[in-house]
Design a protein that fits this description.
By secondary structure, the chain is mainly alpha-helical. 57% of the residues lie in helices and 7% in strands. The protein has a two-stranded antiparallel sheet. It has a two-stranded antiparallel ribbon with strand order 3-4. It has a two-stranded parallel ribbon with strand order 5-6.
């Protein structure tokens, strides 16, 4: 591979001749061969959007010449349009604070702007990576700002998928509203419930989780751009930070706002902790719901078998005809992975010192990975699992009508102790609750029919009264 020689503050660096990145990205590419993963396209989008907003602000303020400012904006638009996406080779796990990625973006923008203005790659005679795309900026304010933009933009598809899942669960709640079944507490038989009531409750839980994610989204929209190196705004025009945020609002349609304290926005990455909290709550609730679905479909002959999940793939390489709850298992696997990323976010958020938290590359990767895999798995889980769930109505009704917990409805009529004796007799003699009540002559037939009607036991009221 042919190379060109670039010089930075540490000396000469051989950079591939046709590369739009420069010496600092090349140093990082060779130093941090960690994961083989480069930055997510959304993180590149966020960084370039920010650089475009900064270049336009500096252009409007007369701090960049018209030709240079327009060339940087054009270069940004080309990258946002899909060009030069192979020019960001920095590993997601690179140097603290994210200087490698910031400089990688600066170098690509500078080299492309240099070309637009008639220069050559690596010359930096017309546009310099540190002086022009980075004018009035530091990694310390651009990386946290870009990270917040990335996370907020990636929250949009996740919020959409959370809505779709909640809607699908709610639709099943309506579909299964007339399906009576036995409730279970402590994994033991409990009073009757309707299958639709269970699914409606799942939908409510998912929608409550969405509120936490929306709260995190609001936190992420507060940006500390303009703080430069230590949050003091050194080397920035007084109007610069406001113009940058105004530009970002115009580019994205999101309600970005300037942080009231740029020092706090640099020292604290609490917004990423808020994101972790919202993701964690969603994952914990979805784990609970997914485990319920796996229990309810267990069988088909030796489990509960109250519902059937759509068969999507043969379940065994040795047992013919076996079908597993594959989509639910996949969701669990992803949920556990996301919970791990939330733990990473927590540790990174608390690891800042004094004027800067340098763990931002770790935060950025954890956030983008969690948001991507969770949105993707909810998409396929909703379409290939939830919408196709069916109910085994006969099995559900059988459990509801034969459960000893039906005797709970007799408490107001014959008292707890007498009802408990009915249950013991029914279990010992393998008889139904109504059969034992009749044999003992505890209530008349009309009262018994009202008291033990499973349909009346799934709403507030006192059956038999």
């Amino acid at each position: 591979m042919s190379t060109r020689v670039e010089r930075d503050s540490l000396g000469d660096v051989n950079v591939p001749s046709e590369a739009y990145w420069g010496s600092q990205a090349e140093r990082s590419r060779n130093l941090f061969r960690i994961s083989g993963l480069t930055e997510h396209p959304r993180m590149i989008d966020a960084f370039v959007l920010l650089k475009k907003a900064c270049a336009q602000a500096n252009l409007d303020l007369g701090l960049l010449t018209p030709d240079m400012g327009k060339a940087l904006v054009q270069a940004s638009d080309e990258i946002l349009g899909g060009q030069f996406r192979d020019q960001f080779p920095v590993d997601v796990f690179h140097m603290g604070a994210g200087t490698s990625l910031n400089m990688n973006v600066n170098e690509v923008l500078a080299n492309r702007a240099e070309q637009i203005l008639g220069g050559n790659l690596g010359e930096y005679k017309l546009v310099n990576p540190n002086d022009h795309p980075n004018y009035g900026q530091s990694t310390n304010d651009t990386f946290p700002t870009s990270m917040r933009i990335m996370a907020r933009l990636m929250l949009d598809p996740l919020l959409h998928e959370v809505d779709r899942l909640a809607d699908a669960l709610a639709a099943k709640g309506v579909e299964f509203d007339g399906v009576l079944k036995s409730g279970r507490t402590h994994l033991q038989d409990a009073v009757p419930i309707r299958l639709g009531q269970e699914f409606t409750a799942y939908a409510v839980s998912v929608r409550r989780c969405k509120r936490w994610l929306e709260s995190a989204a609001e936190e992420l929209e507060e940006l500390g751009i303009g703080g430069s190196a230590a949050g003091t705004g050194l080397n920035t025009h007084p109007d610069y930070r406001f113009k940058v945020v105004e530009n970002l609002r115009a580019y994205t349609g999101h309600e970005w706002r300037n942080s009231p304290d740029m020092r706090e926005a640099m020292q604290s990455q609490m917004c990423m902790g808020a994101l972790a909290a919202g993701l964690r709550l969603l994952c914990l609730e979805l784990t609970r719901i997914t485990n319920d679905l796996r229990l309810l479909c267990s069988g088909p002959l030796t489990g509960l078998a109250e519902i059937v999940l759509p068969p999507v793939q043969p379940g065994s390489s040795i047992m013919p005809g076996k079908v597993n709850p594959s989509m639910a298992e996949n969701l669990n696997i992803v949920l556990f992975q996301v919970l791990g990323q939330c733990q990473t976010l927590d540790y990174c958020v608390q690891a800042g010192q004094l004027e800067l938290n340098v763990m931002m590359p770790g935060m950025a990767f954890a956030a983008q990975f969690a948001l991507q895999i969770l949105a993707n798995t909810l998409d396929t889980f909703t379409d290939n699992c939830v919408v196709g769930i069916t109910a085994n109505e006969e099995t559900c009704r059988h459990y509801a009508e034969t459960s000893p917990s039906l005797a709970t409805a007799l408490n107001p009529i014959i008292g707890y102790k007498a009802a408990a004796d009915v249950v013991k007799t029914a279990l010992k003699e393998k008889k139904s609750i109504p059969q034992v009540v009749r044999e003992k002559g505890l209530v008349d037939e009309e009262t018994l029919a009202k008291a033990l009607d499973p349909a009346l036991l799934t709403e507030p009221g006192i059956p038999g009264s």
